[in-house]
Specification:
Blueprint: E1 2-4, E2 12-13, E3 36-43, H1 50-65, E4 67-74, H2 80-91, E5 97-100, H3 104-107, H4 116-126, H5 131-137, E6 138-139, E7 142-143, E8 157-160, H6 161-168, H7 172-175, H8 191-203, H9 216-228, H10 246-259, H11 273-279, E9 285-287, H12 291-299, H13 301-304, E10 307-310, E11 314-315, E12 318-322, E13 327-330, H14 337-348, H15 350-359, H16 376-379, E14 398-401, H17 409-417, H18 420-429, H19 435-451
Parallel strand pairs: 1-4, 3-4, 3-5, 12-14
Antiparallel strand pairs: 2-4, 5-13, 6-7, 8-9, 8-10, 11-12
Helix pairs in contact: 1-15, 6-8, 9-10, 10-18, 11-12, 18-19
């Protein structure tokens, strides 16, 4: 049995289920002897059909295990989901399972039930999860959350292949074909090549649509660029690593250079602005999941049929891919922790993950590299193969990235929310600071955060 409810004052998507997921394959993960009730708060998916898979899977699992599953899909407008987690952490009551924003696992780690047993079994089956997922969900040497794929995107480059070929002379379809292989020129897809292409497309009237403000899309792509230069602002203990950091200087200089070729208002863009730039036909490239292309397919089909997703460029230290997973944690004060573990394990199995990803049109990314071969990424179009390279595939030779790693979670959260990477670039590109002056400001900001 499954039902949907809403906590007081919280906006959710509600629906009534009947005969949920009868056609879904049953994965052999059972909550033996855990009949009862299970309350789950999941992230309200951006993709209109994205919640359907969770409803179907939870319904199937609940029926097989005699557990009454209650689902709340809570959106992030006004930080409602984050505020729900904060309130429950204080009251020590609420849901059994709750979706947590990427950095919030660390904030609540002492209140979350360890899930080492579940992650151990999943890793034995599918190999280790990617480094970004592990960094965010593992604290004090213990797994405190799991990343079922629902709502977890990569943010590679979505390119107007016609504009890039015409104005920058780069054939991205040949470079990154819809096959598990690199094409001609793939080894030249670096940030230097990217900067040159940005300049050429800007001169042609089709600038890249890259936000430079304080929202996640901006922080994430700049974070991946910094990682590809080995440019870290702190060490794992939170000590600033600003002074004498040649790699950080190089990364900032490259980002400032790229910013010169972007629309003038990118410093105020939110996470929808880059989508609008692509859909309008005014931009040759954005860093985004397939959601921007999917909206273009509906509202601007002539644009959508000219889009092709490719990996992010590489830097001197390799290729890094922005990855922003929503984690699911189990409150240590929850009433049915055994059932909660079993459900999260079921949702993370390959068959469940593929169903979730199929239902979201390919948006959702599992944390396991062995799940980068779902057929949905081959079939989606037009053009067919347009999102083949959206998941991080072995031939990309890329590492999943989260901005401000390896800083401790408490510090990294503040750095992320305050968007220190885009702000330091803005001080130079917009404020006229010298690089040394901007770096001095950055070190002071980090030290202030460390002092609390």
């Amino acid at each position: 049995m499954i039902k949907e409810t809403a906590p007081p004052g919280v906006t959710t998507r509600r629906a009534t289920l009947a005969g949920a997921a009868a056609a879904l394959p049953l994965v052999n993960v059972h909550a033996q002897g855990t009949a009862g009730a299970l309350r789950c708060a999941f992230w309200d998916h951006w993709v209109p059909t994205g919640n359907n898979a969770m409803r179907e899977l939870c319904g199937r699992w609940g029926e097989q295990n005699r557990v009454n599953v209650t689902l709340d899909f809570i959106n992030t407008t006004g930080n409602q989901l984050q505020l729900t987690a904060a309130a429950q952490s204080q009251s020590r009551t609420g849901h059994d399972i709750i979706s947590l924003a990427p950095w919030d696992v660390g904030a609540y780690s002492e209140l979350l039930e360890p899930v080492d047993d579940v992650m151990g079994r999943l890793s034995t089956k599918y190999g280790p999860p990617n480094s970004a997922a592990e960094f965010l969900a593992k604290h004090g040497g213990r797994w405190k959350a799991i990343s079922p794929p629902s709502g977890s995107p990569n943010k590679p480059a979505c390119v107007r292949f016609d504009l890039m070929k015409e104005h920058a002379g780069i054939d991205v379809q040949a470079m990154w074909p819809a096959r598990n292989e690199r094409g001609p020129g793939a080894d030249t897809w670096t940030w230097e090549t990217f900067a040159q292409a940005a300049e050429k497309c800007q001169r042609a009237g089709f600038p890249f649509g890259l936000p430079m403000g304080q929202f996640t899309d901006a922080v994430d792509w700049v974070g991946a660029l910094f990682a590809s230069y080995g440019a870290f602002m702190t060490d794992a203990r939170g000590n600033p690593t600003i002074r004498g950091n040649a790699k950080l200087r190089q990364a900032i200089e490259m980002t400032v250079r790229i910013s010169r070729f972007l629309p003038n208002d990118v410093w105020a863009w939110d996470d929808a602005s880059n989508n609008r730039a692509l859909i309008s036909g005014r931009s040759a490239l954005v860093f985004n999941p397939p959601s921007a292309w999917a909206v273009a397919k509906r509202d601007a089909p002539a644009v959508a049929e000219k889009c092709w997703t490719i990996p992010m460029p590489a830097g001197p230290e390799g290729r890094f891919l922005a990855y922003l997973p929503w984690n699911s944690g189990i409150w240590a004060f929850g009433r049915n922790k055994t059932a909660a573990k079993a459900l999260l394990e079921f949702l993370s199995e390959r068959e469940s993950a593929e169903h979730t990803t199929n239902t979201s049109g390919g948006y959702d990314i599992p944390p396991f590299a062995t799940m980068s071969d779902f057929r949905v990424w081959e079939r989606e179009g037009p053009p067919v193969g347009t999102i083949f390279n959206y998941p991080n595939k072995p031939h990309h030779q890329a590492t999943a990235s989260i901005a401000f790693a390896p800083a401790p979670p408490e510090l990294a959260t503040q750095m992320y929310i305050q968007a220190l990477n885009t702000k330091v670039v803005a001080r130079i590109a917009q404020g006229g600071d010298s690089l040394d002056t901007a770096l001095g400001w950055l070190e002071r900001e980090i030290n202030t955060m460390r002092r609390g």
